[in-house]
Design goal:
This protein has 8 helices and 22 strands. α1 (13-24) packs parallel to α7 (293-311). 23% of the residues lie in helices and 27% in strands. The termini are far apart. Strands 1, 2, 5, 6, 7, 8 and 21 form a 7-stranded mixed β-sheet that branches. Strands 10-17-11-12-13 form a 5-stranded parallel β-sheet, covered by helices on one side. It has a 3-stranded antiparallel β-sheet with strand order 14-15-16, with no helix packed on it. The chain folds into 2 domains: 3-120 and 244-311, FAD/NAD(P)-binding domain, CATH 3.50.50.60; 124-240, 3-Layer(bba) Sandwich (FAD/NAD(P)-binding domain). The protein has helices at residues 13-24, 40-44, 62-73, 160-169, 188-196, 249-253, 293-311, 330-336, and strands at residues 3-9, 29-32, 50-51, 60-61, 79-81, 86-93, 96-101, 105-113, 121-122, 138-139, 152-156, 175-179, 200-202, 206-212, 219-224, 230-234, 237-240, 244-245, 258-259, 262-264, 277-279, 284-285. The structure holds flavin-adenine dinucleotide. Flavin-adenine dinucleotide is lined by residues 9-15, 32-35, 40-42, 45-46, 49, 51, 53, 85-86, 114-118, 160-161, 281-282, 291-294, 296. Flavin-adenine dinucleotide binds at residues 9-15, 32-35, 40-42, 45-46, 49, 51, 53, 85-86, 114-118, 160-161, 281-282, 291-294, 296.
Amino acid sequence: MDLYDITVIGGGPTGLFALFYAGMRGAKAKVIDALPELGGQLYALYPEKYIYDMPGFPAILAADLVKGCVEQAFQWPHAVCLEERVTNIRRVDDSVFRLTTDKGEHLTKTVILCSGIGAIKPRKLPAPSAAAFEDRGLFYYARSFDAFNGLRVVIVGGGDSAVDYALALEPRAKAVTLVHRSQFRAHPHSVSLLRQSRVDIRQPDYEVKEVHGDGAVQAVTIVHKKTQEESRLEADAILCALGFVSDVGEVAAWGIKTEGHGVVVNPYTMETSVPGIFAAGDVVSHEGKLKLIACGTSEAAIAVNQAMVRINPANKVHPIHSSNLTLPISAKVGAHNP
Ligand SMILES: Cc1cc2nc3c(=O)[nH]c(=O)nc-3n(C[C@H](O)[C@H](O)[C@H](O)COP(=O)(O)OP(=O)(O)OC[C@H]3O[C@@H](n4cnc5c(N)ncnc54)[C@H](O)[C@@H]3O)c2cc1C
């Protein structure tokens, strides 16, 4: 069995950037992901949504960002194991870990845990009748916006995802209503665009009380929490963006210290409580942690540089900068730049 320098668990944007960085540092690296495709939440949950907070891109579709991350990461021939779930990590000796998966075993000198929110489980709509309509008009993420063309859509939630969904669907749906029980937590610029759009905003203090339909969604009853006044909205689809339940339970079972919904790391090194196992991205918890793609990639770079020192103490933490490193396509990239 081959021994790798770095094994990345999770092929979301953080894991892909860790792979890129591992390539630049000349490490022999591998990625393992439980899903059939790389890209993590971006590909699994919102491939058609625009992302506005990536350095260098005023707006980029999530699927296009994944494509770029994959292309950037695989400038080196990293090993990829998809549809394979890591179920355990055990130390073999001071310098080697054995990873057990649902398909076999892997040996590695260091691990970078980029497993995000773990198994992607959306927070469910509490209305009692909701479960019966799941995937029959009631959805927890929108993989294709075209599926909503010409429909009357009720979106539930008040964070970035709900507001972004409302803005994306407004031009294509017949009608969009946004129902939220509190203040918006979305980016103020997006909220201001929302208020200028034709989205019917029912917020604050509104909740979905009941979903109606004969086999598929036909209407919802919403209630104003303070006045208890109810109204019925005719609807063909309900899109709930109520966040996701993180589960770091399996990581804790591997002996890695967790706190709340995240893995505890030293934010200066991204090392977990187990020396040689690092973590980055949505899976980690530290003071000031922001669950954003840009922040995850920065943590991934720190983790890889620290892993290189762990592998060989003679390695430097600081790689100087990218032009001092191995960049197989750097000449090609340069050719496209003015
Ligand atoms: C609707 C929505 C919109 C968003 N919009 C933005 C935005 O505009 N800008 C922004 O910065 N952020 C946004 N985010 C947040 C962003 O998606 C996350 O911060 C980002 O995906 C975290 O990346 P990650 O690689 O750490 O984890 P993830 O993307 O969650 O990837 C983790 C990967 O690990 C795999 N995995 C987990 N456990 C195992 C295991 N045991 N074995 C093998 N594989 C495993 C999973 O299958 C998954 O592929 C949004 C999130 C949502 C839900």
